[in-house]
Amino acid sequence: MKLAGGLKDTADLGNSGLAQLIRDGDTIIIPTRPAAAATLTLSVKNTFSVTVNLNTADLNELMTLPGIGEKKAQDIIDYRNQNGPMTDLGQLLQIDGFGKKTIERFIDLVTLE
C-alpha cells in the first residue's frame, strides 16, 4: 500500500475488503470512517444566505426547511408564542424532536433577526 501512496488517517480498513484476491490493474477502494460528530455551536450567527427567519416565519415558510414538516413547524410557532422570540438557535433543542442533527440540516438557511 505504501507504493500506491499509503493510506489516509480516515481509512476504514475493517470495511475495505482487503482479504479479496487482486490482480494487476485492479482498483481498490478503501472506504473512509465516518467523521467524528461535529460539534455544533448554536450561538454563533451564520454568514450564509439567509432565507427563513425563525422568529417571524409562518407555518408554510418553516416547512420549506429540510427536515421540518407541519408538526415541527407548528412546534416552533408554539414555542415562540409561549417563550417569545428566540435569541439563540440552541433554544430549538428545548423543543421535542429537535436535536443537533435536525438543526444542522437547516442551520445555514435560517436567521433569528
Q: Distance between the terminal alpha carbons, to the nearest Å? A: 53 Å
Strand order of the largest sheet: 1-2
Weakly predicted, low-confidence segments: 43-48
Principal-axes shape call:
rod-shaped
- Give the helix proportion (percent range): 10-25%
Q: Work out the strand percent.
A: under 5%
Q: How many β-strands, per DSSP?
A: 2
SSE class: mainly alpha
Q: Residue-averaged pLDDT, rounded?
A: 78
Q: How many helical stretches?
A: 3
Rg from C-alpha positions? Answer: 21 Å
What's the story with the biggest beta sheet? 2 strands, parallel
Order of helices and strands: EHHHE
Which features would summarize this protein structure in a list?
mainly alpha; 113 residues; 2 strands; rod-shaped
Concise synopsis of the structure shown:
By secondary structure, this protein is mainly alpha-helical. It has helices at residues 59-62, 70-83, 100-106, and strands at 52-53, 110-111. Helices cover 22% and strands 4% of the residues.
Describe the protein:
- This protein has 113 residues and is mostly helical.
- Helix content is 22%, strand content 4%.
- It is built from three helices and two strands; from the N terminus they run βαααβ.
- The chain has a two-stranded parallel ribbon with strand order 1-2.
- It is rod-shaped.
